[in-house]
Amino acid sequence: MARASTGGASRTADAARHSYPLSMTTAPSAAATAAPLRPRRTWDLVLSIVLLVLVAALGLLLFALAPFLVMASDSCGASTVCDSGQIGSGFLVAWVGPPVVILLGIVATIVLLVLRRLAFWVPLAAALAGIGVFVVGAAIVIGGVEGATF
Question: For residue 89, what are the domain limits?
Answer without folding.
Answer: 41-150
